[in-house]
Each structure stands twice: as C-alpha cells, then as structure tokens.
Amino acid sequence: MRRLIGEGELADLAQGAAVLGTGGGGPPYLGMLLARRAVHECGPVSLVSLDELADDACCADVAMMGAPTVLLEKVPSGEEPLRALEALERAHRRTVTHIVCGEAGGVNSMVPVVAAARRGLPMVDADGIGRAFPELQMMMPTLYGITAAPLAITDERGNTGVLRTVDNRWTERIARAITVELGCNASIASYLMTGAQARQALVPRTLTLCLELGEAIRCARAAHRDPVAAVIERLGGRRLFHGRVTDVDRRTVFGFARGHALMRGVGEWADTELRLEFQNEHLVARRDGELVASVPDLIIVLQEATAEPVTTEELRYGLRVEVVGAACDPRWRSQAGLAVAGPRAFGYDHEFVPVAAGGPHLGGASWRA
Amino acid sequence: MRRLIGEGELADLAQGAAVLGTGGGGPPYLGMLLARRAVHECGPVSLVSLDELADDACCADVAMMGAPTVLLEKVPSGEEPLRALEALERAHRRTVTHIVCGEAGGVNSMVPVVAAARRGLPMVDADGIGRAFPELQMMMPTLYGITAAPLAITDERGNTGVLRTVDNRWTERIARAITVELGCNASIASYLMTGAQARQALVPRTLTLCLELGEAIRCARAAHRDPVAAVIERLGGRRLFHGRVTDVDRRTVFGFARGHALMRGVGEWADTELRLEFQNEHLVARRDGELVASVPDLIIVLQEATAEPVTTEELRYGLRVEVVGAACDPRWRSQAGLAVAGPRAFGYDHEFVPVAAGGPHLGGASWRA
Q1: Domain boundary among A206, A234, A269
Q2: What is the pTM of this model?
Q3: Chain A contact set for B159 (CB, 8 A)
C-alpha cells in the first residue's frame, strides 16, 4: 500500500516533525501553509519506502537554510525550493526522481513536500538525520562519505549559487556565509544520491514516524488523555523535566539562533532548575548542573498539557513546558557519529551521555522498523 | 605589430598597473612572481587591441578578490585562476578565447597574465575600469548592462562556487561573503562577454599604458630624472601633495582594507596636512580640509624620489611620499558612472570634484588613444 501525503496529512506530519525537530527547523506552521498550497494546487505526494526505492533512483534533499528566527519575518514564496532543485539538476546533469527530507524539523519537513508536490515527484519515507541539526554536514550521508555538493542555493530575488566543495564542512561554511548575506534565509538543494545510497545513508521511516507522532498527539488531545505521555510512549522517550521558563537568552549569531533558557521545576521537579542550551535546536539539558541529555539524543520541549512542540524561538518567560529526552538513531552514537554531531562538535566540553541508557529504547531501535 | 608580454615586460606592466591601481589591487610583487613563473613555463602572452578583436570573440575577466592585506600572508599557488576560468566556461558552456584584465592594479594586472600564459590565450589590451576599484560591480561593463554573473569563485583548497545573480551588486555581495569565509582571498572569473561587447565596455589600451608608465619610471630613474614627473607627464596628472606620513589607521573590515592616513607637507606644502581616505584603493584626498581629489579620479601615492607606487597596506609612519591626481576615464564622470563609483557610492557625503578640471587632461582623454 502506498501512503499519500495530502492536505489531511500535513498537520500530523508537521506536528510530528516539530517534535523530532527538537526546537529547530523553523516554525512548522509557516512551512505547512506553503505545503498546503502546493498540495492543494498540485495534488497529494506519494511516500515511497527505502525498500521500494530502485537502486538507480535519483534522490535529492530540498530544504531551507538559515535562522528560524528570521524565517518568521522573511517569509518565502514557495518557488525558491523548486529553483534550487532545478539548479541542482543542471549542476549534476541528472533529473531527480525522488525528493528527500533532509531533516525532520518544522519548516524542513514541509519544504520537501512543496518541491515534491509542485514537481509531481514522490518523497522517500526517510530523512537525513532522524531529527533536526543546525549544520549541513551533520547528516547521516556524511557518515557514508556522500557529499552534500554540488549544492544549489537560491533566494527569493532570483540569486542562485552552485557550490562544489572539498568536504561537507566547507559546503556548510560557504553556504552559511551566502545565507547570512542573503538575509539569513535561503533555499538549498543538495545531497543528490542514488536509491542504493539512500537506502544505506538515510534514516528509514522518519516521515511515517512523524505522521504517527502527530496522530498520537491529536488523538490523545481529543480523548482527553495526556498527549505528552503519548509522545513519550511512541518515541520510547523519558520525561526529563516539568516546569516554567524563567529566563531566555537568545541571539542570532552567524545565521543561527543561539542561546539558553532556564526553567524552574514544578511537581516532581519542584525546587530544581533546568538549563537548556540551544543552537537552532535544543542541544544540552542540565538539571541542577547534572547533565541529563545532550546531542545527538533528542531533547524535546513540549507545552504542558497540549504537547505542542516549542521551538527555540518560541521559548519565552512564563511558558510552562515538559522536557522529554529520546534516543537518536544508533549510528549517531557511534564514534564517527559523535565526531560529526556529538557535544564537542557543538563546542560543548563534555562527553555524550545517552538519555535513558539501558532503557527499552536504547539506541533508538524501539522507534524504528 | 602584435605586442608580446614576456618575462622582460612583466616588471614594467606590474609597475604601471600599480600606479593606476591607486593603492589597491594587491601587492604587485607577489602577482609578478606568479606571472613570471607562468610566462617562463608557458611562453609569452600576446596582446590584442580592442580594434583587432573579432565580434564573436569570447572574453572573460580573471582576477583575485579579497583584502590585499591578507594576500601578503595567504599566497596563492597560481592554479586557482585557471580553475575559476574552467568553472566559468562550464557555467557558460563556452570556451574563452581572450583573457581580460578586470582592473589595472597590482596583483590583478598579473593574475590575467597567469591565466593567459597557462591557457595559451591572448590578452585584450584594455581593462575593465582604467584603474582599480574595490567592488565587483564597479566595472565599466556594468554601465553597459553587462553582467558579472555567472561568476566562478575558487580557493586554494579546491572549493568552487558558481553564482547567477539578479545584478552585479548582488554578485559582489555574495562573492564577497564567500571570499571572507574562504579566508579573505579567492580567485574569480566573471564578466564573460563577446568581442563586440568588450570593444564597447572596456577601457582601451590600458595594458599598453601600464607598460609605458613602467618604462617611463624605469628610464627616468636610470637617467637620474624625476620619475614622479615622468608619471605625471605620461598621465597628464597633477601633483597634489609632497610630505611625510604621520598617522595611519587601517582595519580589515568585511574583506576590505579600510582606513585613512595623515601626511605632513614639505617644501611647497610645508605647514599643510593631507588626509587620505582609502578602501583597498586611495579614494579621497583633503588638503587642510579642502577636497583636492576623489573617486572616480585617480589618487596615486608614490614614494618620494623613486616614484615607487605605495599601496594602502604599505602606507606607514614616516614614509615620504608624493601624491598625484589624474583624471579617470570620462565615462566614470558621467551621471551613470558616478552612481556606480562616485564618492557617494563609497559612502562619502560629498559631490565629485574633478582633479585638475580644465587642464589638458580633462576627461582622461590625454592618456588614451
């Protein structure tokens, strides 16, 4: 059975992606508006599992780059991702057959839908990370030696760049510099790969997981059950904190939304404090100084009672939230994975401590396959 | 008769270009080393006048972008310009037949020689400005609606970008952002144009003028005549100041060497002070507060007695210099020209005041044709 993403699925998909987005990937609502229009005008997008993918399929990641904080004020038209895709195809002299969602995160779960709907292409039921990460080289394909370049980058004015680089870190650096110059927001197409490569290097079933997460939250709300518990159950995650935001320090630095938030506990966590560090995504959580979760594991901030995912730019004084930890794809916990996206890759001077180590969800296996 | 640029011509060419470079375009010595090796290994480069150029010739500008201050420490290998040229050809799907010198300035008079020698192509006896300017859109072709893009940009590591932009100002902005990220120095190929376009949009005979200026300085020195006077005579210029540098304030900002120098007069200018503003090039000269020269006219700083051109990064306390003003190509003095490269285009809040207005060199015509 082939699954379709139509207008009816977009809300669940965006909601689930916002959960996995761990605060990053931009505001889901904005991306959903773009995707809704595209699906409304061009019809639903079919979802192809990695197993179904032909070895010689031509897959490409279409995404937005920049600071989510800026995205809220500098709204894209929806044409930019298509122009990026076309520039990528020209650079490779290949025609893309399948659209890949690079990261499960708010706007970046929707932008590929926009591109797929408008080009009439299927999407792969997978993503490049299994969550959201702030930098371009922090993708599973990097661990498999797959290059992001040639990468195409466009803006709303009609400027386009094609980058060929020596490694994915340089792709990130140059694309980021361009993004900042373009106004901290750009559309990119990159990581062109074959179906065989995609099967190996992508994180399987992420879009289905997003749909299921969104559905779980929606149904729990409707049934007056705890939607936060539904998220935790679906992810095999763990409740890390429940409290109220007491301080937020947020800056836009080099195209990133960086900062930290402090939270004061309630209930079980009364008289304790959580400090949350973020760089586009929620990256490190310390409870009374003790490290309770860090990248590459998922730190998910949800509004109390509604389980509405809270992005880093939505954190504000007084907001009552629950913080959930969940295991990342096990490959991110490998030495190679941690070198690319472990705490030290983000400038934090501590080792990775798995959230809920030894639990039933160790290695993230429980929410895959 | 076809003129050749061999090893014997390089010193004069570099010297003359350094004069027209008005302090910018990078240190001529470094560029000369690269050109000397290329010409030594690959043979001399022939010089083709604009009149001789076939209408369907394919001309391209090869240059370095970045802060000259940085270039002194981050020396290019000489391969980068060729890689930029090849990327430009791939982007246009054209084969370049003639190399253009984008600006008459130290390193950027030599980089095109490197590319021409290594590719076995002739150079056009012209340049894109008639002097040096710090930004990519400040080229005569901009006044004729010729686009810098597609532009190819490369670094010494092997990173390459191809930009397609909405106008030459955006080409500058994006290429500059990339250049800064690459370490404030990159090689670019751009402004691909036909022979017919080149004839209209380039400044004719600039390379011959450079050779003649270099020769004039060399011969004056050998004959114990005043080489500064020889420069002034050849350019139809005017002596603006003679003095000693008393203060220099120089910063590298956004990939540019920016700042100002103060000079205390001697002889005729005793008890007067000259303030020189620069942004890669010497841009504005005020004598005791009075504006005596400004862009787009040429402000040339020469070492006293030797007439060795002084770049903005060579200005230092105690240096004894003579400052010469000369008229730019008359098209820069038009309304359209001043909009692109007049004082206000550089952020100075004053009108253009022609140097030596009414003199025999008005409009720069005296040193053309």
Answers
A1: A206
A2: 0.88
A3: 163-166, 170, 174
